[in-house]
Amino acid sequence: MIYLHASEVISHGRLKSSNCVVDSRWVLKVTDFGLHEFTAGEAHVPGEYAKFRNLLWKAPELLRDRHSPARGTQEADVYSFAVILFEMHSRNGPYGMCELTPREIVERVVSKDENGLPFRPRLSEISSTPKFITDVIKECWDEDPLRRPDFKSLRTQLKPMQKGMKSSIFDNMMAIMEKYASNLESLVHSRTDELIEEKKKTEELLQDMLPGAVADQLMHGKQVEAESFDSVTIFFSDICGFTALSSESTPMQVP
User: Fold this and answer.
1) How does pLDDT run across 197-235, given as a tens digit for each residue?
2) What whole-number distance in Å separates Cα of residue 104 and Cα of residue 98?
3) Which residues form the Protein kinase domain (predicted)?
4) CB-neighbour burial class of residue 243 (10 A; exposed 0-12, middle 13-18, buried 19+)
5) Up-side HSE of residue 57: CA atoms within 13 Å toward CB?
6) d(C-alpha 212, C-alpha 206), whole Å
7) Which of 47, 46, 45, 49 is nearest to 105 (CA)?
8) How many CB atoms are closer than 10 A to CB 18?
9) CA distance to 28, 32, 41, 69, 147, per residue, from 66 (Å)
10) Rounded Cα distance, 88 and 83, in Å
């Protein structure tokens, strides 16, 4: 981004996580810049959801100005970078666990919240992130574009992130894979516990619905053999006041 801002391109204008790709050498590449003239005349019009979702990375000053330049500004790129940085640490999209629709989020960013404060992703969702990173994020999405740092300053501020990193690309790749495997293992354990709990509920439901012997056979994957009887007895019974009794009982108490 430092090179991009110093070049004739001047600014990216569409910076977001989907435009940051990793090549076969594990090197990050920034894409989709310098194409403003092409995209401005494209015939395809995205649906409302996609349209507003693409605006979640856009700086508020550009959202408010209908005549803002298509290529954006360098300050707006810094704002977009802050949203990407939040995504990296929250692992939950540009606005984390926010339950609002993309359109509602964009409207709040444009108009600020009910207290007149800028609407931004909740930093409480990344409370375990080092403070110097959250400080950088807050600086980068400042409401005043002139108070946002440039990418040269950001490179210096984020240098502590490289602490402990290996000089070899392969070593870094292995460290990343180990961290990913550890996170995946934790996720598998969590999902397994949920599966066991659901299985237990299903077994209890079977025991309530079917005779014990039949339920046990089904739970063990065995086939239930049909039984034939020479004669049967049908029992009819009438419970006095059953309607009143049912109205005072829970659904599980009625059977």
Assistant:
1) 998 888 888 888 888 888 888 888 888 888 888 888 888
2) 10
3) 1-162
4) exposed
5) 24
6) 8
7) 49
8) 11
9) 32, 21, 16, 9, 22
10) 9
Q: Please tell me whether residue 30 adopts helix, strand or coil conformation.
A: strand
**Is 70 exceeded by the pLDDT of residue 251?**
yes
Question: Could you tell me the residue ranges of all domains in the chain?
Answer: 2-163, 164-225
**SS3 label, residue 171:** helix
pLDDT (tens digit, 9 = 90+) per residue, 59-86?
Answer: 999 999 888 888 889 999 999 999 999 9
Q: Which residue has the tokens 């408010």?
A: 64
Per the DSSP assignment, residues forming a β-bridge with 21 are 29
* Count of helix runs (H) and strand runs (E) in the chain: 11, 2
**Residue tagged 């034939």 (tokens):** 228
Residue 218: closest CA among 199, 233, 237, 235: 199
CA distance 149 to 138: 11
pTM, to two decimals: 0.64
> What residues pair up with 29 in beta bridges, in sequence order?
21
The residues that bridge with 28 in the sheet, in sequence order, are 22
Query: How far is CA 172 from each of CA 20, 27, 70, 180, rounded to the nearest angstrom?
Result: 19, 11, 37, 12
Q: Which CATH architecture has domain 2-163?
A: Orthogonal Bundle (1.10)
Distances (CA, A) of 156 to 137, 153, 159: 14, 5, 5
